[in-house]
Design brief:
Layout (H helix, E strand, L loop, with lengths): L1 H13 L1 H5 L15 H17 L3 E3 L3 E4 L2 H12 L4 H15 L9 E8 L4 E7 L22 H5 L10 H12 L9 H9 L1 E2 L2 H9 L1 H4 L3 H7 L11 E2 L2 H13 L2 H4 L2 H12 L9 H6 L3 E3 L2 E5 L2 E5 L6 H12 L4 H4 L4 H21 L10 H4 L2 H8 L36 E6 L5 E7 L9 E2 L2 E2 L12 E2 L2 E2 L17 E5 L2 E6 L7 H13 L5 H6 L3 E3 L4 E4 L8 H6 L4 E4 L6 E6 L1 E6 L6 E4 L1
Parallel strand pairs: 19-20
Antiparallel strand pairs: 1-22, 2-10, 2-23, 3-4, 3-11, 4-7, 5-6, 8-9, 9-16, 10-11, 12-13, 14-15, 16-17, 17-21, 18-19, 21-22
Helix pairs in contact: 1-3, 1-4, 4-5, 5-7, 5-8, 8-12, 16-18, 16-20, 16-21
The structure holds 6-diazenyl-5-OXO-L-norleucine.
Length: 594
């Protein structure tokens, strides 16, 4: 398999020279094009490093993401003098092809940006929006009961207005240097000439064939001749190439109005057993939002992430803030006491997340109150007991509205992808991107899958007459757990990271920061460190790892413990003396740099 992917990448690199010629606004002296052979060797070295548990090292730039084809496309852009924003466009365009189950044009994303020139940090919100016709009964059946999760997911009902194409364009417009159209060249070429189906894609298609076969376009693409596409098979996606050509030529407006937007709307509304409410007006109204980052101090660093509508930045920030008074470094990663503190800090943070976090354009969210030092100090004192907290309830952060919300327990299941990039200009980009569930709504248009992001809303609008903050409302963005993060020290980035994993993303990201900052692990070791994740209920422990040694001690401390596969997809870059990249050994990605 490794050989097949490498052969594909060599082809891609060899044919890339022509694509790069279109990048006319790049500073020529900054361009250091990589040859095909050098790139192929680097991919091999990156795969080997990951297997050996070593970080990839570089001096000038680095990109880490979930698939070698996508990373290579990003590396070529960076090598030719492109910025992290340029490289992201190329990476995302290829990910939508080679990892279609996780992210793409039909989904949404959040991006955290550190600007090398100004030393400032900002975030872009490319989250999907609910159709204007959607309301509190969207996910209720005729009797007012919440739908079963997959009955809501599969079909048109769960599809929100995609944000990723607009986000790609907004990031490029703000921070790009390369010619927009050229950034799609690799993805178009691969879509037309074929890419090698990875083991993960083949496995997930086979596991999901029943659901994928409901939509004729998805069936024809993923199950040609009625059989799931096989690992190692060369797959072409001419419809995706055509879509990319349209966006490359005329920008994201070609996605949000005209033929493509019409086709998306018609498809979503026309699904017989589960139609959606999306309209062309919804598509044409879509806007990326620039928002202030949420930054929380931790061990002399500032941990900066995505605020509402994501719960990622606030919940990671709360976990770390609650742990600040405790000496995790002295306890070490093998200590049940360390994991008691982390687990209960996480339970307390998740209690607040369930009650208070949602789209702050629609409902008041106590963003400042949730991470205020005195509030965190009060909640942190609850962790002094030495045993698992018997009960965990939301706190009462300072809130300038006399309001309270009922708790929300929206479900999130596997897919999603994370991209970390550092460029030669000192910019850093952290972007988590998703179509929500694996293969999203299973509805395919124009060679890509549409999201099911609306099932990230609470299915219930009220509990016992009290409204849920994350209820469905027209035009609103569903609460997310995505936690693209940049950690700063003295105002400069030292760690860029993020992960897939639904609401476990929060635990994966917090753990990686703790492993790196408290336990001194290099970025690859921090990413690979076995997971222990606690949201509200059971303590999830990663099966088949040394973390299972903590099962008995954590049980003795009063936790319900569940051993399970914990499929993160962490991609991280540490900055210090040069760059060090880490790619999650649980997934197919790599880090590549120069
Ligand atoms: O926005 C969110 O939090 C989810 N829709 C992300 C889904 C996800 O990460 C699934 N991962 N394995």
């Amino acid at each position: 398999m490794k050989r097949l992917i490498r052969a594909g990448i060599l082809l891609l690199a060899a044919t890339h020279a022509s694509a790069q010629q279109t990048t006319d606004s790049v500073t020529p002296e900054a361009a250091t094009p990589l040859g095909a052979a050098a790139l192929g060797a680097q991919v091999d070295a990156a795969l080997a490093a990951k297997q050996a548990g070593q970080p990839v090292e570089a001096r000038h730039w680095m990109v880490a993401a979930a698939n070698p084809y996508a990373v290579t496309a990003g590396a070529e852009v960076l090598a030719a003098g492109g910025t992290a924003a340029d490289a992201m466009v190329a990476v995302q365009a290829v990910l939508g092809l080679v990892e279609p189950q996780s992210s793409g044009l039909g989904g949404g994303a959040f991006l955290v940006w550190y600007d090398g020139a100004s030393g400032t940090i900002t975030t872009l919100d490319g989250r999907e929006t609910a159709p204007l016709a959607a309301g509190p009964t969207l996910f209720l059946d005729g009797t007012g009961k919440p739908l079963k999760f997959f009955d809501a997911v599969v079909g048109g009902r769960s599809v929100g207005v995609p944000g990723t194409p607009a986000l790609m364009q907004a990031a490029h417009a703000k921070w790009g240097r390369s010619d927009w159209a050229g950034l799609f060249a690799q993805a178009i070429r691969l879509a037309e000439e074929g890419f090698t189906v990875s083991p993960r894609l083949a496995t997930l298609v086979a596991a999901d064939s029943m659901r994928l076969s409901k939509d004729p376009e998805a069936r024809a693409y993923f199950l040609p001749g009625g059989l799931p596409v096989a690992e190692g098979h060369s797959l072409r996606n001419p419809a995706y190439a055509e879509t990319l050509r349209a966006i490359a030529g005329q920008g994201a407006r070609r996605f949000y109005s005209g033929k493509l937007a019409q086709a998306i709307v018609e498809k979503v509304r026309g699904i017989e057993d589960n139609p959606g409410l999306l309209s062309e007006i919804d598509m044409s109204l879509y806007q990326v939002r620039e928002r202030e980052a949420v930054c929380v101090p931790y061990r002399g660093h500032e941990v900066c992430g995505m605020g509402p509508p994501s719960s990622g930045g606030l919940t990671v920030g709360q976990i770390l803030g609650l742990l600040q008074p405790y000496d995790l470094a002295a306890l070490g990663p093998g200590s049940a006491e360390a994991w008691r503190l982390i687990g209960d800090a996480s339970r307390l943070a998740f209690a607040d997340r369930g009650r208070y976090m949602a789209d702050s354009d629609y409902v008041p969210v106590p963003v400042k109150g949730l991470v205020a030092p005195d509030y965190l100090a009060r909640r942190a004192a609850l962790l002094q007991g030495g045993e698992a907290l018997a009960e965990v309830a939301p706190g009462a952060p300072e809130f300038d509205h006399a309001l309270n919300w009922a708790d929300d327990d929206a479900i999130e299941l596997p897919s999603t992808s994370h991209i970390s990039i550092v460029d030669q200009y000192g910019n850093a980009l952290s972007m988590t991107t998703t179509i929500e569930n694996a293969f999203g709504s299973r509805v395919m248009v124009g060679g890509f899958l549409l999201n099911n992001e609306l099932t990230d809303f609470s299915f219930r609008s009220h509990r016992d007459g009290v409204p849920v903050a994350n209820r469905v409302e027209p035009g609103k963005r569903p609460r997310s757990s995505m936690a693209p993060t940049i950690v700063l020290r003295d105002g400069r980035p030292v760690l860029v990271l993020g992960s897939p994993g639904g609401s476990r993303i929060i635990g994966y990201v917090a753990k990686t920061i703790i492993a790196h900052l408290d336990w001194g692990m290099d970025v690859q070791a921090a990413v690979a460190l076995p997971h222990l994740v606690n949201r509200f209920g059971a303590y999830d422990i990663e099966t088949g790892t040394e973390a299972t040694a903590l099962e008995a001690p954590l049980k003795a401390l009063g936790y319900e413990v569940k051993a399970r596969a914990l499929n993160s997809g962490l991609h991280a870059i540490a900055l210090g003396q040069g760059l060090k990249g880490g790619a999650d050994p649980r997934r197919e990605g790599i880090a590549l740099g120069h």
